[in-house]
Amino acid sequence: MRRFFAAIPGLVALAVFAAAYPSLARASEYTEPLRHVPNVEVRSSGKVVFSGTVDLGPTLDRIARGETYPHRNDGAVFGNRERRLPKKPSGWYREYVHPTPGVRGPGPQRIVLGKDGDAFYTPDHYETFHPLNERTR
User: Fold this and answer.
1) All residues at 6 or more sequence positions from 132 whose CB lies less than 8 Å from its CB, including other chains
2) Does 36 participate in catalysis according to the annotation?
3) For every residue of 37-65, which 3-state class applies, written as one string?
4) Does the structure show a pLDDT above 50 at 62?
5) 133 near 32, Cβ under 8 Å?
6) How much is the mean pLDDT over the chain?
7) Does domain 2-131 have CATH number 2.60.40.10?
8) In this predicted structure, what is the pLDDT of residue 136?
9) Active-site residue, 95 included
10) Global pTM value
11) Which one of the listed residues 95, 127, 130, 134 is annotated catalytic?
């Protein structure tokens, strides 16, 4: 019984995320994005500003609620100009700011979501990407 109640917050988050992004919620293609990314080095201007596990949960929850971070690129189309993500049509990806404590401005961290459920995290402003769901891992 205790395990059942422990699973409820994750199920609620998945339901909220699926409601916010119905095109991403196809059961055959979609898995809930990872909320914690271990062994990350967050780099800003080439310097490591954080090392450890990054909790993306608050940002994923914010996105699911339809809220934006106060930065012009939050929720904007991600152009994939670096070509580090799979090639898709223009407008396929959207980027969201994941704040970096101790760094001025929005910082280097972003979550990038594709129209079909692709989910990626970059700790270093598009230099590297970590896949966040089973389809992209």
Assistant:
1) 33, 34, 37, 56, 111, 119, 120, 121
2) no
3) EEEEEEEECCEEEEEEEEECHHHHHHHHC
4) yes
5) yes
6) 83
7) no
8) 52
9) yes
10) 0.76
11) 95
Other Cβ atoms within 10 Å of 27 Cβ, number: 7
22: pLDDT strictly greater than 90: no
pLDDT score of 33? 87
Are 97 and 62 spatial neighbours (Cβ–Cβ below 8 Å)?
A: no
Please pick, among 29, 32, 71, 125, the residue that the annotation labels catalytic: 125
pLDDT band of residue 95 (cuts 50, 70, 90) is very high
Q: How far apart are CA 52 and CA 92, in angstroms?
A: 30
**Domain ranges (residues) in the chain:** 2-131
Q: What is the mean pLDDT of residues 103-119?
A: 94
Query: What six digits make up the tokens of 129?
Result: 């990407």
Residue 74 or 4, more confident: 74
Please name the amino acid found at residue 103: V
DSSP β-ladder status, 110-114 and 93-97: antiparallel
Listed residue (79, 106, 83) closest to 94, CA to CA: 79
At 42, which amino acid appears? V
